[in-house]
Amino acid sequence: MRSGARRSRRHRPxxxxxxxxxxGVAFVVAVLSIAVLFALVTGASSLASGEARATPFWRDANxxxxxxxSGLNHCLWKLKYEGTEVxxxxxxxxxxxxxxxxxxxxxxxGVLPDGSSYSVWVxxxxxxxxxxxxxxxxxxxxxxxxxxxxxxxxxxxxxxxDGDGTAEEDEGEETQINFPPLENQGILHVTAGEEKKIGPGxxxxxxxxxxxxxxxxxxxxxxxxxxxxxxxxxNSTTNPIEEGQTEPTYDLVIYIPPLTEEDGVxxxxxxxxxxxxxxxxxxxxxxxxxxxxxxxVYGMVVGDSVQVSGATNYDSSGQSIxxxxxxxxxxxxxxxxx
Length: 338
Hints:
Order of helices and strands: HHHEEEEEEEEEEEEEEEEEE
């Protein structure tokens, strides 16, 4: 029995491998899955890293656009209030130095983010002086944006279509021009026999007074904003014409914007009298203006009323002084883009 039992166990057939056993395939699939997962994780990590690197690029690029817009707005401000300074330093982008930069202007300091700046080029159109072509190049942390705009001057509050020195009212809405944000320097007073220099630039005064035999000289194109009155007395000279010249070296513009009792001003006046010599442009739409007593005026005087008497000499060729850019009503953006 024992022998048979042993024999029976000795001749039991060996179990064959099961058909379809995939233990080897499963291992291969597991390895491939891990490889694919590793590739996905690596790709996602690279993508995230790339996005992290790209974010500062796009942030700086977008910020450069807004910094360029700031340069354009700064240009609009300067054309309105410091037009003579702009016109004296016009330039063409890519050829000339910039007309001004954010680093050269006090009003830009501390306004822009760190690492930001802009340069502005202003060029008057060759066929239409009321149009300015502006190019702004901004930079933010090495990223740049180039913005171009065309600015057109709004209609003037008066015009002289015949060139005869007679100003006509502009047709359209009433124009209001405000004082620029300048420090009021009180009274500009040239005493009798004194010689005083001013300019270039824009200035704000309560009053301008040049006494007899006094001389007011300009050192560049100058705008005088005056709140109350301007008086030029006997034998005084304002912006003289040098010997051998036919017109003054620099433009002088005196602008007296309308004020009300709320501003502490009830009357405004302009007086040129007693053989005074005045070379410039006066625009005082609410003022009573008097030119008397053998005075000589080269330019234009515009007021609520203008009384001319005596042997006054008015030279209409002074029209060439024109309406200054710094006293323009405003500039409008006519076209705008990259």
